Amino acid sequence: MKVYLGELEELVLLTIASLGDNAYGVSIQQDLEVRCSRSLTIGALHATIARLEEKGFLTSWLGGATSERGGRSKRFYEVTQAGKKAVTEAKLLRDELWQQAKLHLQP
Amino acid sequence: MRNQPPRLARRLLEWWSGSASVDDLLGDLDEWYAINSRRYSPLRAKAVYWGQALSLCLSYGLRKRKRDAANSVYASSGFSADMLRNYLKVSVRSLYQYKYFSLINVFGLAIGMSVSLLLIALVSYVKTYDDFHEHRASIYTITSERTEGIEQSDYATAPVLLAQALSGHADVQEIVRIQAGFDENIRLERGALSLRGYYVDPSFLSVFTYDVLQGDGQATLSTPNRVILTESAALRIFNTTDVLGRTLELEQGGLLEVGAIMKDHPINSHFKFELLIAYATLPPPSASLTDQWMNYGREYIYVRLREDGNVDHVREVLNHTSERVYAGLPVKAVFQAEPLLGTAMGPDYRQAIGPKWEMSGMIVFAVIAALILLPACFNYTNISIARSLKRAKEIGLRKTMGGQQRQIFAQFITETIVITLVALALGILIFLLARSEFKSMLASSSSLDLSLTPSMLFWFFILALGTGLLAGLFPAIYFGALNPIQALKNKVHSHGSAMRVRKTLTVFQFALSFGFILALVVFSRQYRYSVGFDFGFNKSNIVNVPLQGVDPAQVRDALAPLASVQQVTLASDVLGLSASSTWVKDATGDSTEVHQLFVDDSYLETFGLTLLAGSNFPDRPWHGERAILVNEEFLKAYRISRPADALGLTVEVEGKELEVIGVVKNFHYAPLRFPIERFFFRQDPERYTYAHLRVQSADAFTLFTELENRWKGLTDRRFEGRFYEQDLQDGYSMYRTLIKIIGFLGVLAITISLLGMLGMVVYTAETRVKEVGIRKVMGASVAGITLLLSKDYLKLMLLAVLVGAPVTAGLIGYLMPYIQYYSVALNLGDVLVATVILVGLGLATIASQTYQTARINPAETLRAE
């Protein structure tokens, strides 16, 4: 079954992958802000994460409580095999389209 | 104070997410907040936090989590029997583990609850008063608010004339008139027997529910001079209950026929009588109609309404009658219909017909019970919070394993309730032990039964639950909110606020104990002061002999010849204990109240009273009263400054013109409760009820045997002579009772506060054991360390004295004049004595623990370091 991957979903998935071991709510949001200049509300972020989890592209575990967080643990996210496949497929699809489109920006 | 994220927003999010786990989200928000407060102003950071929280509330992410949580296997419906069992198990284990503290808490709470148990027992019994009457819900009693001049009082009585006004009213089924003045001596072969009862209408038996065993009750109450006896009265008089038709001979003359026998009325009744006598026996009233409306002592009216009767209609009739009757009279009375069931413990009325539990007294009792119970709760709260360090790891671990705040809260509340239930068992034991002593302190104890009943036990249980909630609430909230990281890292410090709460509670407790001790010191001084008071007359070596109806002259003639009796005098009352009063009309026609005593000519000499001017009564009394001896206070009313000027003055007393023939120096003719006011001696042989003997005998036993032998020649009644000083002490026995009560409460309050402090000291000593070890190694002395560990508590106690002393002093200073006019004033000595007692007891408690800690060999405590 072909799973559709939205633009924001792809972005979040890639960000999580790029953050590696340190992908949790705050760091994801900060990274998106800095790298993509996307100021995303925390609600929107978690809605996206929830959808990705539903699709089976993300897993998560708890850990890493700090006193700054009032002793509450972080929820770390990791991209699953299915997630990696989905994002790779999305990339391949684009690459193919890019090649066929022969679209070139003229400087 | 550290910059905290907005709590309300967090609460909102927590509440919104319900059982879904959002810890990580909250953590993220906190982290964002920390970042934002570095970037922006605190206000803006807070605003961002709010925005984020709201955004999460609306987010699909949270919605999904909630949905997952609802379907999860771990979803709990909030309450489960398994969890409760677990709470109980953990509670019992932890109570067992900290045996010493559990013991202190159980003991303290048990003592604290014992007074409340007495209160509950009393109230729940008094609540059953008069509930045996079949028509109880439709019976009302008429009360009155009587105004004479500026004096206004509420009475339980009402003029029986009202019965006419109410009879035939559509809402009224039946009316009972009661005259409660039957108090006669019955002449029997073996001596006289006093009997009390009510004059009642025949309807008494149809309105109230009583068991007539033999005879026809209604018929008996319809005919004059016939009575219904209670079984116990019949047994007392005739030794049998088979007494129908027998007669009772009254000492005052007259015969009564026993027409019926009834079962003794239950003791939980606001009536108290041994016999009922037909109302028709009373002679027709001799006073004028207006007098009957104005003076209605010991007259009572009860009405039973029809099923559909409305009491408001009766009240209207009463109001109309009152307006009509009292127009233009110097006395006004307003009537009220009160339901029967509220009478036993209702508002305070004067001249209640039988046993009465005054509301005001109950309220005072309730306040005292609360004052004893609250400190016990404080103790528990105090000790629990102080021990938070010990329990912090347990709580931290529970929270880390997923324990929610709610669950920790439930755990601690369960623990407290378990402890209060154990304390309740002990408290009931104390209650059973203190019960009879408590009953003996109450005036109406014969109408009180404090045996345990199921409903009483139910309320006991409710009390224990309430106490548990009260005592455990603060610790449970505190522990529930504990931060697990800090708890596990041993970083829990007693919060500033918790520390303040604890100190305040301790000071309050000790101030209360101090108050009790101080009151005890003052009242015992007051008692000694009253008994040893200089009344202005000679009171030693005087024997009071109640005449009991024997002819006064005969008694005097029989007792005077005895060698040890120096003087005999006759009087109407015992000087210094009671005095009657009358009204004096002066020339202008104004009436003033004057206290009086009827005495014979040797009275002044016997009691060593000083005559300032004029002469004593003559040896031989005149025919008819002629003269009075007045006191100095009496002269002031007439603005006479020189006693001699008063001689020859005549005043009108009870229609008689009496001449002042002498002036007596002021003395205390009445109890010290009352100030010395206008007073005179009168001479009237008819009024003597006491003989006073001035005796001289080293041996009281021989003296009394002699007196009794003489007495036997006069009458078959028992000789009841006693030394005046004994009577005097009995007259002030109220102080002994008061001292006993305050002493009992004081012991409870002090025990509770000392237990509380013991718990705190033990805890402090435990936690500072290593510090003590190091100090000792560095050369500190045992005494120095004991002092160091005790210092804080000593300060708290002294603070309590500072708080307690002025409050208690103010309270005693306010109350004392009400209790007694001539009273001791609280002085610094009392405060000092009370302080020494309190601090002494406190120090002994503290030192017992701190000294032990200070003596521990440092090698033992520091070995592992």
Main sheet record of chain B? 6 strands, mixed, barrel
Kindly name the structural category of chain B: alpha+beta
Here the CATH topology of chain A equals Arc Repressor Mutant, subunit A
Q: Number of domains in the coordinates of chain A?
A: 1
**Helical residue percent of chain A?**
55-70%
Describe the structure.
The complex is a heterodimer of chains A (107) and B (865). Chain A is mostly helical. Chain A has a single domain, classed as Winged helix-like DNA-binding domain superfamily/Winged helix DNA-binding domain (Arc Repressor Mutant, subunit A), CATH 1.10.10. Helices cover 55% and strands 11% of the residues of chain A. Chain A is built from 4 helices and 2 strands, in the order αααββα. Chain A has a two-stranded antiparallel sheet with strand order 1-2. The longest helix of chain A has 21 residues, at 81-101. Chain A is elongated and about 55 Å long. Chain B contains 29 helices and 22 strands. A 6-stranded mixed barrel of chain B has the order 3-4-9-6-8-7. Classes of the chains: A mainly alpha (107), B alpha+beta (865). The interface between A and B is medium-sized, with 28 and 28 residues.
Short structural description:
The complex is a heterodimer of chains A (107) and B (865). By secondary structure, chain A is mainly alpha-helical.
Question: Any descriptors?
Answer:
heterodimer; A: 107 residues; mainly alpha; elongated; B: alpha+beta; 4 domains; 22 strands
Give the arrangement of secondary structure elements.
The complex is a heterodimer of chains A (107) and B (865).
Chain A: H1 7-19, H2 25-36, H3 42-54, E1 58-63, E2 74-79, H4 81-101
Helix pairs in contact in A: 1-2, 1-3
Chain B: H1 7-17, H2 23-39, H3 42-58, H4 60-71, H5 81-97, H6 99-126, E1 139-148, E2 151-155, H7 162-166, E3 172-188, E4 191-200, H8 204-207, E5 212-215, H9 217-222, E6 226-230, H10 231-238, E7 247-250, E8 255-262, E9 275-278, H11 289-294, E10 299-305, H12 311-325, E11 331-339, H13 359-386, H14 388-400, H15 405-441, H16 454-480, H17 484-488, H18 496-531, E12 542-546, H19 552-559, E13 565-571, E14 580-585, E15 591-598, H20 603-606, E16 611-614, E17 627-631, H21 632-637, H22 643-646, E18 650-653, E19 656-664, E20 679-682, E21 690-695, H23 700-712, E22 722-723, H24 724-731, H25 733-767, H26 769-777, H27 782-819, H28 828-855, H29 858-862
Parallel strand pairs in B: 4-9, 6-8, 15-20, 17-19
Antiparallel strand pairs in B: 1-2, 1-10, 1-11, 3-4, 3-7, 3-10, 5-8, 6-9, 7-8, 12-21, 12-22, 13-21, 14-15, 14-18, 16-19, 17-20, 18-19
